[in-house]
Amino acid sequence: MDIQQIVLELIDAGWTQKAIADRLGCSQPTISDIAHGRVGKKRPAYKIVVGLEKLHAEVFGAPGVSPPRLRPRPDAARDSEGAEASSCGAALMAGGV
Fold first, then answer.
1. Quick one: DSSP state of residue 41?
2. pTM over 0.70
3. Calpha distance 60→12 (Å, rounded)
């Protein structure tokens, strides 16, 4: 994934250009240039590229890594082995659907 795509995804996720810049220790105009594809004449510093990759992994999860599982609700249906079942699965097990 290129750095422009990373910045655009972070912005879509609610991050501002200023927040990204503050996190990476660079200026907001630098992030704006990356977001608009204006990095051709001057390449971004290595720390910015690495910082963007780390921030993206933190926000969206590292590639190939499953997101953390949510804790089951206390009232969630459970199958015969005690594992959480979806409401659809619970209805199927009960012979309802």
1. S
2. no
3. 12
Query: Of 62, 53, 50, 55, which Cα lies nearest the Cα of 20?
Result: 55
Coil, helix or strand at residue 51: helix
CA distance 31 to 21: 6
Q: Is the pLDDT of residue 42 over 90?
A: no
- From the list 8, 61, 67, 55, the residue with the least C-alpha distance to 32 is 8
Does residue 34 carry a pLDDT above 80?
Answer: yes
Place of tokens 């001057």: 42
| 24 vs 43: CA distance, rounded Å | 15
- Of 29, 26, 50, the closest CA to residue 38 belongs to 29
Pairwise CA distance, residues 15 & 72, whole Å: 29
CB neighbour list of residue 89: distance below 8 Å, 6 or more residues apart? 77, 79
